[in-house]
Each structure stands twice: as C-alpha cells, then as structure tokens.
Amino acid sequence: LPIAEAAVPGANETFVPPQTPLEQTLARIWRDVLGVERVGLHDDFFEMGGHSLAATQVSSRLRELLRTDVPMRAFVEHPTLKELALAVLHRQAETGGQALEDSLLELEQMPETEARRQLESRGTEPA
Length: 127
What we know:
By secondary structure, the protein is mainly α. Helix content is 57%, strand content 0%.
C-alpha cells in the first residue's frame, strides 16, 4: 500500500534547499549518514531517522571538516538543518571563526565529488 502523504514527516511543507556553503555541507553529511536523498533547511534530524549514533557521526565529520566541536545537545536543541547551521556558526564565533571561513571557502570551491573524496580520505566515509 502507498504511504499516505500526511504520514511522511514534512510532506506538507515546501522543500527549501540549503543556501549557504555551511548548510550545503551539513545537508551532504546528513544525506550520507541518514541515507536519504535530500535534506532541506527545515528538515528535522530526528524525524529523518537520526539518533544518537548518527549525531555522533555527523559531529565527527563536522569536527574533521570545519575544525569545530558540535556537542550532542546541539542536535536536540537545534534539530533542523537551518538551526544546526546557525548553532555551528555561533560555536565557531565563540572559538574563532577564521577556521570556519577557511574551511567553507575550501569546500565551496570543490566539486561535490572532490568533497566526498576529502571525506573518505579523512576516514569520515559513511559506515
């Protein structure tokens, strides 16, 4: 039987794609970790199947790529892609934003295949 549209989380919301390099990077990581095809700005990590182990994987990749620690409570307090991106920016501002800017510029200029290769070479490929 087909799944009723109302039963799918976010099915009645309009998809809003990630806009900034950070949002796009987070969306790519969420897609890889959660095994979903697309992630929008208003998608909720937990409604998409996220759990504590998946949050740990996302946090580890963010640490590698953006050189910043994202505590587990950030996923609970900021469960949507947009909210988590803002939390990461605030965290970077508290600890020194230059590393984030450098990382985002580097990622923004890479083709997606190269960004994936970078993730794999740093040992952050999906399990």
